[in-house]
Each structure stands twice: as C-alpha cells, then as structure tokens.
C-alpha cells in the first residue's frame, strides 16, 4: 500500500449539502477516522478494477491527491473471461506481457456445434489474463504513482455537496472534492447519486477448469466460440496456460438454465476435468442513453453500463472511459468546478454510447438468424477479417458496421428476420 501523500491542488472543506443529489444528510454519516487523510482528497475513486486503478493512476500522475477504495483485499479473484482484446491493450501504457497467460492467434467459430471454422492471424489479437493478476498489476502501477489505496473498505453511502463529497465506508468517512464510481455492475456510487437506475443486467457463467494436457494443447493460442448455442448469447473456451476458462452467457438471466447449458457444452466439446471455480456474475448494459455523471460525481466502466451487449466485452470500455475522463479532468474542473463532467458525458456519448447503440442493433439482427450469419462468415471470411481489425483497434465498430452492411446487404437479412417474426 502506498504511503505517498500528495498535496491537494485546491483543498476545500465546505460541508454544504446538495439535497437534490441525494436524500441523505451529512448527519447520517459516521465521523471521519484516521484511516483517511483529514484533508479532503481531490478525487475519491471507488473500485480498483481496471477502470478505477487506471483512472487513479492517471490523475495522480497529473498531481491530484487521489484515494482509491475497494471492498476487497488484493489480489482478488474476479469472475471474468479475461480476454483482453488488442484494442483494450492499446489503452494501457504499462507493460502487461509478464502476466499474459496466452496470446490468441486463432478463433474457432461455430453455430450450435455445426460448421466449425477457424480464423487465423499472424499476431495475437486477444491476450488472455487472469483478472486477479491483471487487476493487481494495474493497482500496483497506481500505487507507484502515489495513489493512496484503501483495501477491504466497502462504500455504503455517498453524500454530494456543493463543494465536495462525503463517502461513508465501513472504515469511516472519506472526504473529497470529486468522486468517481468505478465500482462495477452493482455500483453503490451510481445508486447513491441516482444514476443508471434503468441499467439492464445480463448474466454470464465462468468456470475455471483443470483439464488433461492434450486438451490444453488443443486450445493453445485459440479461443472457441459457439453462438446460437443459447438464444441471444454464446458459449466459449478461453485458454489460460495451465487451465481453461469456460463459460456461457448473455441472452438470459436464468442461472440454472445457463448452468445446464454449460455442462451440455462441455460434454459436447468432450472436455472433462476438475473445476477450481464455478461462478456467475452480471454484466451491465446501460442502454442507449445513460447519464454517466451528475454534479461532482462521474461513473466509468461497468458502473456506467459500458459493456458491449453483443459479445460482453467490458475491459476495453473500463480502460477507455478512465482515459477519457483523465484526459479532460484538469481542464474541466478549472472551467466548471461544481459540475465538471459535461465534457466527459459528451465524449462518452460521442465515442462509446453511439457504438453501443450499433452493437445493440447488430446484436438483434445477428441473434435473430445466427445460422445464416455464420454461413455468411464462412463463405465471406473478409467480414470476419474486418471484425479482427475492430478487435485490434484499427477500425471503429461504426465503420465495421457500415462497411459490412454494404458488403452483405444486412437490410435483406433484417427483412427476412422480420418475416420470420424472429425479432
Ligand atoms: C462471466 C464474465 C466474463 C467476462 N469476460 C470478459 C472478457 O473476456 N473480456 C472483457 O473485456 N470483459 C469481460 N467481462 C466484463 C468485464 O469483467 C467487466 O466489464 C470489467 O471487469 C469492468 O471493469 P471495471 O473496472 O468497470 O469494474 P470491476 O472490474 O467490476 O471492478 C469493480 C471494483 O469495485 C469494487 N467494489 C464494488 N462495490 C464496492 C463498494 N461498495 N465499495 C468499494 N468497492 C466496491 C469491487 O470489489 C471491484 O474490485 C466479463 C464479465 C463476466 C461477468
């Protein structure tokens, strides 16, 4: 844990309550304790997943005094496939290869077990990580930059005032000028400040599986994806060097159904072994127009519902939203200290939410006729090749969508799906 303490750029001790932001009052909060600095922090970041640690590091580098709070002790296990796409990797400016379990150069796609096809690239387009290792690496990088980290510190209540925020935790109250909720899909910060009330959650299961060395070899450098296996979602195998991460999800919130389907999938893929973890967790899909900031508080990553609803990629958006917020922060608080996140909201809207809307549209279409799409992918590998460019961060999804729409005439498929009353 870091002991470096930075001087607040503009200390502010006002306790004025903005009651429009919350129904709580300061009197409901416990007294400040010695755990936190008695001077307010410039920024309190709640949640030290990839989004929170990256943002905290970037702000600390700019000279802000940052407190990073997490309910867990680190390193901690996180239910996640750990597929770090190349475009996500490009958002990182720290060395991470040391914790990569496997570099993915091929992807086997099939639809309901049929018509298997493997697409190959020369260089890795996904880097497989275990989230305990990855998140710990990002956290350590933040600590190296002087961020003050408070593990095992659960945030329960937030009070936003005109000139500061009070964050109540099971270790006392932390005071700051600004607050960022990076606390994941069930974000307490979002609930407390009244954001993301209409967020949708989708469920996915993730099992860690020790398998026979032959099976490890079978999946080395390769991810396998079966879409259509469950309606509106997919099943996967991700290699992790000494074991496989297998999972299924999206499309339903019925955990028992997903469990049955995952076992069925493993049976079909002739994968047997010992599970070291069998867990499920939600992903958050914020909808098309979520408000991700209010007054002195902003949300990033899963807390802001920034997960692609088609494949469930979230690490990229957690890192990207952290970087967007960090790059505009100093200027934004200088020009509008009481409500500095207007520019952040606008950037998220322009770059990410517009992409989410396209993912939603593409997802509806794709899941209405996965078999037809799969046949098309096999017949016209150019379409998949182009998707690899999105994964690699060389092409935006908007460009991909537009080019593919022209290429394969998606309108015709949409008409077909409508005729079949599939959506
Ligand atoms: C089964 C599954 C598989 C997935 N696979 C992939 C994948 O392969 N690739 C990909 O890109 N994405 C994947 N995702 C999505 C990805 O895991 C998330 O999008 C990503 O973790 C979001 O990062 P984050 O920093 O926003 O939040 P998180 O990583 O969720 O971190 C939030 C942190 O906040 C802390 N916290 C929560 N509440 C509090 C509180 N009250 N007080 C203090 N701390 C708190 C938590 O302890 C946690 O450390 C998957 C998700 C699931 C469920």
Outline the structure in words.
By secondary structure, the protein is α/β, with parallel strands linked by helices. It folds into three domains: 26-76 and 132-197 and 289-340, 3-Layer(bba) Sandwich (FAD/NAD(P)-binding domain), CATH 3.50.50.60; 101-128 and 200-285, 2-Layer Sandwich (D-Amino Acid Oxidase, Chain A, domain 2), CATH 3.30.9; 354-419, no CATH class. The protein is 35% helix and 25% strand. The protein is built from twelve helices and 18 strands. The strands form three sheets. Strands 1, 2, 8, 9, 10, 11, 17 and 18 form an eight-stranded mixed sheet that branches. It has a seven-stranded mixed sheet with strand order 6-5-13-14-15-12-16, sandwiched between helices. A hairpin with a 2-residue loop joins strand 10 and strand 11 (172-181). Helix 1 (50-61) runs parallel beside helix 7. The protein is globular, with a radius of gyration of 22 Å. Mean pLDDT is 88; it is low at 1-32. Bound molecules: flavin-adenine dinucleotide.
């Amino acid at each position: 844990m870091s002991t470096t303490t930075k001087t607040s750029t503009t200390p502010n001790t006002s306790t004025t309550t903005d009651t429009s932001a919350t129904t709580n009052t300061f009197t409901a909060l416990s007294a400040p304790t010695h755990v936190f600095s008695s001077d307010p922090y410039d920024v309190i970041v709640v949640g030290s997943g990839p989004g929170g640690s990256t943002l905290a590091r970037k702000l600390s580098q700019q000279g802000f005094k940052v407190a990073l709070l997490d309910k867990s002790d680190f390193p901690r296990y996180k239910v996640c496939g750990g597929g770090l796409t190349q475009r996500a990797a490009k958002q990182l400016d720290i060395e991470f290869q040391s914790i990569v379990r496997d570099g993915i150069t091929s992807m086997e796609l099939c639809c309901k077990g049929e018509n298997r096809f493997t697409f190959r690239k020369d260089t890795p387009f996904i880097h497989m990580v275990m989230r305990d290792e990855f998140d710990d690496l990002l956290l350590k990088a933040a600590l190296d930059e002087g961020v003050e980290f408070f593990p095992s510190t659960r945030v329960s209540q937030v009070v936003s005032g005109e000139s500061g925020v009070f964050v109540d935790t099971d270790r006392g109250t932390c005071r700051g000028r600004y607050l960022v909720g990076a606390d994941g899909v069930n974000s307490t910060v979002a609930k407390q400040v009244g954001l993301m009330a209409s967020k949708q959650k989708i469920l996915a299961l993730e099992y860690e599986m020790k398998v026979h060395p032959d099976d490890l070899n079978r999946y080395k450098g390769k991810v396998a994806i079966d879409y259509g296996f469950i309606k509106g979602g997919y099943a996967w195998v991700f290699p992790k060097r000494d074991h496989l991460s297998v999972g299924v999800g999206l499309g339903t919130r019925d955990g028992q159904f997903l469990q049955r389907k995952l076992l069925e999938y493993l049976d079909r893929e002739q994968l047997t072994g010992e599970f070291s973890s069998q867990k499920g967790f939600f992903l958050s899909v914020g909808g098309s127009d979520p408000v991700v900031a209010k007054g002195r508080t902003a949300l990033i990553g899963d807390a802001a519902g920034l997960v692609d609803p088609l494949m469930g990629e979230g690490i990229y958006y957690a890192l990207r939203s952290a970087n967007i917020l960090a790059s505009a922060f100093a200027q934004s608080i200088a020009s509008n200290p009481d409500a500095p996140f207007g520019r952040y909201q606008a950037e998220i809207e322009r770059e990410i939410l517009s992409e989410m809307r396209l993912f939603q549209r593409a997802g509806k279409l794709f899941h209405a006729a996965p078999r037809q799409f799969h046949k098309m992918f096999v017949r016209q590998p150019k379409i998949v090749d182009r998707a690899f460019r999105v994964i690699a961060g060389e092409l935006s999804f908007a460009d991909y969508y537009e080019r593919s729409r022209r290429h394969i005439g998606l309108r015709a498929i949409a008409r077909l799906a409508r005729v079949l009353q599939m959506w």
